[in-house]
Amino acid sequence: MNFLFDYNLRGQAPLLWGTIAAEGWLELMSIRFVGFLGGWFT
């Protein structure tokens, strides 16, 4: 699953990543965060 974030949401992306990890979703599926300006949080 891919999440696409624009530059305005960079502050919220780590918070969402932490919530996803805490809930155990990373063990169930591959998740990638991608930004408009490149592949940060991949």
Summarize the structure.
By secondary structure, this protein is an alpha+beta fold. The protein has helices at residues 12-22, 25-28, and strands at residues 2-5, 32-35.
Description:
The chain has 42 residues and is α+β, with helices and mostly antiparallel strands. It has one domain (2-35). Helix content is 36%, strand content 19%. It contains 2 helices and 2 strands, in the order βααβ. Strands 1-2 form a two-stranded parallel ribbon. 0% of the residues are buried.
Mean pLDDT across the residues is 79
How many alpha or pi helices?
Answer: 2
Number of domains: 1
What is the terminal separation in angstroms? Answer: 11 Å
Approximate helicity band: 25-40%
Structure summary, number of beta strands? 2
Overall geometry: flat
Catalogue the unreliable spans: none
Helix/strand order, N-terminal first: EHHE
Tell me the strand percentage band. 15-25%
Strand order of the largest sheet: 1-2
| Main pleated sheet | 2 strands, parallel
Q: What is the rounded Rg? A: 10 Å
Structural class by SSE content: alpha+beta
Topology:
Blueprint: E1 2-5, H1 12-22, H2 25-28, E2 32-35
Parallel strand pairs: 1-2
Keywords summarizing the entry:
single chain, flat, two-stranded parallel sheet, 42 residues, 2 strands, alpha+beta, 2 helices
